[in-house]
Design goal:
Elements (H helix, E strand, L loop, with lengths): L7 E5 L3 H12 L3 E5 L3 H20 L5 H6 L4 E4 L2 H5 L4 E4 L5 H14 L5 E4 L6 H5 L8 E6 L8 E6 L5 H13 L3 E5 L8 H17 L5 H10 L1 H5 L4 H8 L1 H11 L11 H8 L16 H22 L2
Parallel strand pairs: 1-2, 1-4, 2-3, 4-5, 5-6, 7-8
Antiparallel strand pairs: 6-7
Length: about 325
């Protein structure tokens, strides 16, 4: 199936990621079905869509009339068969539980038209772990969005061993049509691209603090006020090319042996989490955020992402 044949997209799971994914396809003019297990969750998802789209319209990122009308065109239902029975593409966005996902993919395989592509938003599981629960492994892939999905353009399209070239090409073309920036992960690898890079940086950040080189606050300051600003406009290979690969080779030769490579998480970080500093959702950052401070930091990040999105508009 080619991208020109796609008319309806179904999203299964109406949480933070699911309703953000559904709203983008709705704004782009596709028929959209949204499934979840309760009417209350679906109502909350549609309200979340309206809030997201109103914010985007206020900043000129979405046409106001289209933003106002898009949620009304979403077919929200607790009936899985009704949601996916006429879908050309299904994107799964349920909990990160492999048994639940495999069960769902088996049901999707039975309920969806034979032409339908089945994609998972998983950040953890490989396409092959889901494909072998179906009779269409060539039409199964991962389409990993980043949070918040309506503000970050990246989607990692991960091919499994059995995923066909046509499936990858169709997903990439579909995502490009709705304004996303797909990146293809050529074979299964835990963490794909984005989370491997993020985790490498976080491991070194933890090692710096554990060694007493700097505080968490100063580590964040170095990234936020230094090279992190470059990363908003250029990736690591582009940054290195602009500075000179010969320079980076010299630096890497001296520095790589000193960079953290331990497979173990530093004990101090385990202790931080054990004593209750579990992050923004728990209202407890590493430097003792209050719930109000956590919410303010979320708002600051969202506003900054909107400014970047406005800047990137043609």
């Amino acid at each position: 199936m080619g991208v020109d044949e796609i008319r309806r997209v179904a999203v299964v799971g109406a949480g933070l990621m699911g309703h953000g994914i559904a709203q983008e396809f709705a704004v782009a003019g596709y028929g959209v079905s949204l499934h979840d297990l309760s009417a209350e969750r679906l109502a909350a998802a549609l309200a979340g869509m309206r809030a997201n789209l109103a914010l985007l319209a206020d900043h000129g990122l979405v046409d106001a009339a289209r933003a106002a009308g898009a949620p009304d065109g979403v077919r929200a239902t607790t009936d899985l068969a009704a949601a996916v029975g006429d879908a050309d593409v299904v994107i799964e966005a349920i909990s990160e539980d492999l048994a639940l996902k495999r069960d769902l993919f088996g049901r999707l395989d039975r309920l969806c038209p034979p032409r339908a592509i089945l994609a998972s938003n998983s950040s953890t599981f490989m396409p092959g772990q889901l494909a072998d629960a179906t009779a269409r492994p060539d039409r199964v892939a991962v389409a990993h969005y980043f949070n918040p999905p309506h503000l970050l353009p990246l989607v990692e399209v991960v091919r499994g061993a059995a995923t066909s070239e046509e499936t990858v090409a169709t997903l990439v073309a579909l995502l490009e049509r709705i304004g996303k920036a797909p990146a293809v992960v050529q074979h299964e690898a835990l963490g794909f691209i984005g989370n491997r890079l993020q985790s490498a940086l976080f491991r070194e950040a933890l090692a710096i603090v554990a060694a007493g080189i700097a505080t968490p606050q100063d580590v964040d300051s170095v990234v936020r006020n230094g090279f992190g600003r470059r990363l908003a406009v250029a990736g690591p290979f582009e940054v290195a090319a602009l500075a000179g690969f010969d320079l980076w080779l010299n630096v890497s030769t001296r520095l790589f042996p000193e960079i953290a490579s331990s497979p173990e998480v530093p004990a101090w970080f385990r202790e931080v989490v054990a004593r209750g500093a579990q992050g923004a959702e728990a209202g407890a950052g590493i430097d003792g955020w209050t719930p109000e401070e956590a919410e303010a930091r979320k708002r600051r990040m969202g506003e900054a992402l909107i400014r970047i999105a406005r800047w990137e508009q043609p």
